[in-house]
Amino acid sequence: MSSPMTPGIAAGRLPADTLAENFDDLHAPYAPHEAAVAADRCYFCHDAPCVTACPTGIDIPLFIRQISTGTPEAAAKTIFDSNILGGMCARVCPTEDLCEQACVRELAEGKPVEIGRLQRHATDALMARQGHPYERGPSTGKSVAVVGAGPAGLACAHRLAMHGHDVKIYDAADKPGGLNEFGIAAYKTTDDFAAREVEWLLGIGGITMKYGERLGDNLSLDSLVDAYDAVFLGVGLGGVNALRAEGEDKTGVRDAVDFIAELRQTSDLSTLPVGRDVVVIGGGMTAVDAAVQSKLLGAQNVTIAYRRGRDAMSASRYEQDLAASKGVNLMFNVQPVAVHGNGAVREIELEYTVDDGGLKGTGETVRLKADQVFKAIGQTLETVAGLDLDGRKIAITDAGRTSRDGVWAGGDCASGGDDLTVTAVAEGRDAAEDIHATLMEGA
């Protein structure tokens, strides 16, 4: 067996029982009594700021009151009415920057009501029950194609099915879920939750799945527009930005999203190789997830290198602190300039930066030992399908309308969002309502 000291990239650095403990649930679910105590801390504010801070507009005071009165399944229905992926969002949503940051308790005491954990308590209770809480509406005779089985596409498809439309979801992968399935740290979504949530969501009926279909490859937008009454694009961002550093093609340099996807789909973590000295380039949630999981797999030294200061990181302060608590070193104001090694990476050279009216290198560099480098510096849209762009994303107006009639878009691929699961759900839901209204005009 390997160990954290084993040179190079190796599997089995930690024993199986340690790996199981490392990748256990990050936050244990509430017991009923714990949930009741946590719910009693809520002031049940009128015009609650937490609701305004939630991208899906969940009636948070209502669902917490329902928990406090011993009806968690009713609380879950309140959540799902606004956010059909409320179970996943309870696990991965940065509540510390959204609803919990806006909580009156946070302002008064520095300790908010734990809204995310209460949301999980409620949604888990309802999802454990047999059956699906929603019924498909009477058939409208209309059909809609949804491209992408991630949060935006799933939310859109479910709401369309509720209205009685026939929905077909196309996805490039061999299973649904998008980033919920392939792109989020394993310790946040244990027990195959992403797949179970999709199966539960599809219980409404009226939604069929087609895998191995990639827009711009074996699937064209023109053919979808011709075959369906409406099309929704929730294709996400499939490409990864380059480091633009000399030597980044060396063995051991790979995309962080691919590493996370491989980890999420591995049934035996002891078979997953990881470096002894790992450097992650980036400052977002993907960077943190890749770094923390490298450490949990047994990497000896793990560093996140970010080109700007701490306050500019898109990863929340909570996520930064989580990384530090797991032994990850955070370096700020450094950018990669070269990857060194004879065929395989052995060191990465970083240049110190200053932000003086624009980011600039200082010319001073430092080298870090590295046998594995992960790129987590943002993703790019792989296909635009002839649609207008806003920057590097699909331009949308209103509730996801694109520049082409009959085509809507939402989630990470569309302009205006903040690349969060909860935002993607909101955009998919709102686009579905607009699609429904458009299809039913004059009916």
Task: Please tell me about this protein's structure.
With 443 residues, the protein is of the alpha/beta class. 35% of the residues lie in helices and 19% in strands. It is built from 17 helices and 19 strands. It has helices at 16-22, 32-39, 49-53, 60-68, 72-82, 86-92, 99-102, 104-109, 115-127, 151-162, 179-182, 193-201, 221-227, 256-265, 285-297, 317-325, 421-439; strands spanning 9-10, 143-147, 166-171, 207-211, 230-233, 239-240, 253-255, 274-275, 277-281, 301-305, 329-331, 334-340, 347-355, 359-369, 372-375, 379-380, 389-390, 393-394, 407-409. A five-stranded parallel sheet has the order 4-3-2-5-19, sandwiched between helices. Strands 7-15-9-10-11 form a five-stranded parallel sheet. α4 (60-68) crosses α9 (115-127).
